[in-house]
Amino acid sequence: MRRLLKTLLILAILLSKTLDKRALLCYDFVLIIYSQLMTNLTWNKYNVIKKTCLAIMAVVLVGVQSIAHVAQAAAWTSIFSNETNAVESNDKVITIPERPVAIKTIRMASTAYTSRPNETDGSPFITADGSVVRDGYVATNVLPIGTKIRIPSVFGDKIFEVHDRMNARYGYRVDIWMSDLKAAKAYGLKRNIAVEVIEMGTGKKNWEQWKGRTADLHKVGKYGPADDPIAQPYIIAKIDDQS
């Protein structure tokens, strides 16, 4: 009987590929029950005892395998889930939303501009829809205010929003606001690049925020500062090793 139980235990270890402490404890428990029963009962009840011990050991084997299979299934589900992607770095986990699909692609020219009066008007820090300029804002005459776009050949997955307009003579062109004049000049003129539209804007403007704040509008419009850059949820930010 002891040899049979040991054989079952070895099979459990080989199948689960790990020395599970619960299997060892249950094995010891079965041996204790077996010894007590053999002491208190007669030999003609040996078969009943044998079947009882085998049943307990079978439950142990099934339990060990079930736990292993559940853990493995949970791990694979976590790794290959399609809802989100997880990137782990330095004990930090960043959950990244799925990349938005472009609803259409337009080919146009692209330039860059800054908040200099000779490039805009007397309120160079205020856009055509009443917003304060910020990194990620663009000007174009062919898309509604609030439209979200992507220029993958130049900026990858970075998202831009249309909040400004260009001179009426410019048709299919997108002008990207930049805070640095040197960077804007270096950007130059890019012809016939693909601009992906990922969400059409409603055309709603933001002038309501300046109601009763004429002095603030004049001050911010002329001197700034620019607002914080728009959020980029689809770009993995570099994690500072010292943070």
Short note summarizing the structure:
By secondary structure, the chain is an alpha+beta fold. The protein has helices at residues 2-16, 21-40, 46-80, 152-155, 181-187, 214-223; strands spanning 85-89, 92-96, 104-113, 137-140, 148-150, 159-164, 173-177, 190-199.
Characterize the structure shown:
By secondary structure, the protein is α+β, with helices and mostly antiparallel strands. The protein folds into two domains: 2-80, no CATH class; 104-204 and 218-223, Barwin-like endoglucanases (Beta Barrel). Helices cover 37% and strands 20% of the residues. The protein has six helices and eight strands; from the N terminus they run αααβββββαββαβα. The chain has a six-stranded mixed barrel. It has a two-stranded antiparallel sheet with strand order 1-2. The protein is elongated and about 100 Å long. The model is unreliable at 78-83 and 237-243 (pLDDT under 50).
Describe the SSE topology.
Blueprint: H1 2-16, H2 21-40, H3 46-80, E1 85-89, E2 92-96, E3 104-113, E4 137-140, E5 148-150, H4 152-155, E6 159-164, E7 173-177, H5 181-187, E8 190-199, H6 214-223
Parallel strand pairs: 3-7, 4-6
Antiparallel strand pairs: 1-2, 3-8, 4-7, 5-6, 5-8
Helix pairs in contact: 1-2, 1-3, 2-3
